[in-house]
Design brief:
681 residues; alpha+beta; Jelly Rolls; Rhopdopsin 7-helix transmembrane proteins; Phosphatase 2c, domain 1; seven-stranded mixed sheet; five-stranded antiparallel sheet; 17 helices; 23 strands
């Protein structure tokens, strides 16, 4: 039998061809989806190795993607150390996963004992939060991913112990926050390359990273320290004298570097919500403070229209930035990202433009004649404000504008002891140097003024010593003691003892005048000099105590600028008889008891005041004690007054002893005491 001839058109042959073609296609498909090459950690020892090269990447989120058995061959290849926006995922925010297979060659690491055979991961940075998985197990996180995310304005590098040293799959779940107006041209993901090694090697990396941050910022720390000291001194000086508003406004720009360092630059300290919620207010407060500082420095406070517009624009600036702050604190950056971005841009651009208002203020002062120190601070403040304005206008929204000016401002010009120096650094230094120069000039000027003032006080003391005698005159029939203790260099208390040569009226032998001018210090002392001169000239024309007070009141009325003076005038004769008139002064004590006097107004309050005389008569051995309110109002630490009772108890002592008792109790005002004792027989 002959065999059947071969037929190339038979159905059986077509079926075989199709089967072989299907096998070939499946093989090719399997080849295209082969697992990516793992990272082999050759040379792993005490030095960590970078986990560079190609990772597997997938947008979205699935907890199952942490599994080491997951087939990720269909995932997109991506590089660590670059943002995912720069690798084809423009404007993507939210979750994405990175995966990398790690292989430990046999015998690795050489030279380490069994106790050190562990793996650790160093994660230098991520945008914006991440969770780290090793062979499907969560080993740690940088920040916190949603539903309650926490991410940092400046993240701190972190290390994670992965466990025993063996082959495995490293999976990193990354979350990128929604885009805001303050952004970068490209962002999102593992923007810095992780490193893997032993815990010891990774710990060394973490230490080196912190050291490098400290080294690169040491110059800024110095500037920040000096600025903070100046700001605190200005603030405390303002608290001591609330009328010196220039110091108040100066404190804000001086404290800005410290706040910026803590909130924005300190790694892992400030969350993004805190930093982004305060940066606008910080800049606005600094701008407003600079405007008002310039109004003081350039002597423009008298320009009513400029001051009014400065106040209006200050309110507008602070209100616009408060919108941003409120939305950030309410978490709109995450809950309503698109709406927040629109409002963020709309409220920030006017604030950026208003930062240029500093030029308007300086323009108003161009023709003013001011000292070099003021001009230097004013120009430096304007330069610092302009640097901030230009930096903000060119840097915010840079992902859309692609302006390079912001990078030029912060481009490193040179390094100083490892610290980068840029244009912004020079602006800060110029402002700080100008303020220190102005402060030095101010201290020199104040020292000169203080010396002149001390000389004036010494002259006033010399005059007062002439007006208030240390050596008491002799009065026939009386023994006298006196004490005068001013609360300051010079005081407002006074007394005069004027022997009388004309004894036709009742055999008078002396006129004694004691009183107290309201207030303390040089102003009160000048009024005292006026009073003493008036007393001596008046006594030459009349020896009636009431008439003397009436004449003194007429001379003082309208000259004391809402002040007044109390006064007691006593005329005594050698036998102990006499008359006394009082103008609102404290009654004297006679033998420990208070004399009853008619009430009357102090001197200088009204033009026409009536004063009456009261007759007094001293017996042999009687002691009359006159004093000012500084004795009565001496106050101890518990707030208790020296009081009338204590005065009565010590009134039998000498004037010096009485004054010292009040001083020991707690002096608060000028103290003057005068005692007169009628001699026996």
């Amino acid at each position: 039998m002959r065999s059947k001839p071969y037929d190339s058109t038979s159905p059986e042959l077509d079926l075989r061809k199709f089967a072989w073609l299907l096998v070939l296609l499946l093989a090719m498909a399997g080849f295209g989806r082969s697992q990516p090459a793992p990272l082999v950690l050759d040379g792993l020892g005490r030095v960590a190795l970078p986990v560079d090269g190609v990772w597997q990447f997938h947008t979205g989120d699935d907890p199952g993607w942490a599994s080491p058995g997951l087939d990720d061959s269909a995932w997109q290849p991506i590089e660590a150390g670059r943002s995912w926006e720069g690798q084809g995922h423009r404007d993507y925010t939210g979750f994405a996963w990175y995966r990398r297979r790690i292989v430990i060659p046999p015998g690795t690491p050489a030279g380490l004992d069994v106790a050190h055979r562990e793996l650790a991961l160093f994660l230098p940075g991520v945008e914006d939060a991440a969770e780290v998985y090793w062979n499907g197990k969560l080993v740690g996180s940088l920040g916190r991913v949603p539903p309650h995310p926490v991410w940092y304005s400046t993240p701190s590098p972190q290390s994670f112990v992965l466990g025993p040293m063996r082959d495995g799959v490293l999976a990193i779940r990354v979350w990128s926050a929604p885009i805001v107006y303050l952004n970068h041209p490209e962002q999102g993901g593992l923007n810095r390359t992780p490193l893997i090694g032993t815990p010891e090697g990774v710990a060394a990396l973490e230490t080196a990273s912190r050291y490098e941050w400290l080294r690169s910022n040491q110059f800024g720390f110095g500037v920040c320290l000096v600025s903070t000291l100046v700001g605190l001194l200005a603030g405390f000086a303002w608290l001591r004298n609330r009328s010196r508003w220039m110091l108040f406004w100066l404190a804000f720009p001086m404290l800005k570097p410290l706040v910026g360092l803590v909130i924005f630059d300190l790694p892992g300290f400030s969350t993004f919500r805190l930093a982004y919620g305060t940066i606008a207010e910080l800049v606005a407060l600094t701008d407003v403070a600079t405007w008002f500082l310039l109004l003081y420095l350039l002597d423009l406070r008298g320009h009513a229209r400029l001051v009014r517009w400065t106040k209006i624009l200050s309110v507008v600036t602070l209100s616009l930035t408060l919108v941003d702050t409120t939305m950030v604190l309410l978490d709109w950056t995450r809950l309503f990202p698109r709406q927040f971005l629109y409002v963020d841009v709309a409220s920030t651009i006017p604030v950026e433009l208003l930062e240029l208002y500093v030029l308007v203020i300086v323009a108003f002062a161009v023709r003013k004649r001011l000292d070099a120190a003021r001009w230097m601070v004013a120009v430096a403040s304007a330069v610092a404000a302009l640097e901030t304005a230009v930096s903000d206008m060119s840097g915010l929204g840079i992902r859309w504008t692609h302006w390079t000016l912001h990078h030029q401002i912060y481009r490193t010009l040179f390094t100083l002891a490892g610290a980068p120096i840029n244009v912004s650094t020079f602006a800060q230094l110029f402002l700080l140097a100008s303020i220190l120069y102005a402060a030095w000039g101010y201290l020199v000027e104040q020292s000169q003024r203080q010396s002149a003032l001390e000389q004036e006080f010494r002259s006033a003391q010399e005059i007062q010593q002439i007006l208030i005698p240390d050596d008491l005159p002799t009065i026939a029939g009386y023994s006298l003691t006196s004490a005068y203790v001013p609360a300051q260099e010079v005081g407002g208390d006074f007394f005069q003892i004027i022997p009388l040569t004309n004894e036709a009226e009742g055999g008078a032998s002396a006129m004694i005048v004691l009183g107290d001018v309201s207030g303390k210090g040089l102003k009160a002392a000048m009024t005292v000099s006026l009073l003493v001169g008036a007393i001596r000239s008046t006594v030459e024309t009349t020896q009636d105590p009431a008439e003397i007070l009436t004449a003194l009141n007429r001379r003082l009325h309208g000259r004391m600028q809402n002040g007044f003076a109390t006064c007691l005038v006593l005329r005594l004769d050698a036998s102990g008889g006499g008359t006394l008139a009082n103008a609102g002064h404290l009654p004297p004590f006679l033998n420990g008891r208070e004399l009853a006097l008619l009430p009357a107004l102090p001197l200088g309050l009204v033009a026409e005041a009536d004063y009456e005389t009261t007759a007094v008569h001293l017996k042999a051995g009687d002691r009359l004690t006159l004093y000012t309110d500084g004795l009565l109002e001496a106050r101890n630490a518990a707030g208790e007054l020296f009081g009338f009772e204590r005065i009565g108890a010590v009134s039998g002592n000498t004037a010096e002893q009485i004054a010292k008792a009040a001083q020991a109790f707690g002096q608060d005002d000028d103290i003057t005491v005068l005692t007169l004792t009628l001699a026996a027989g």
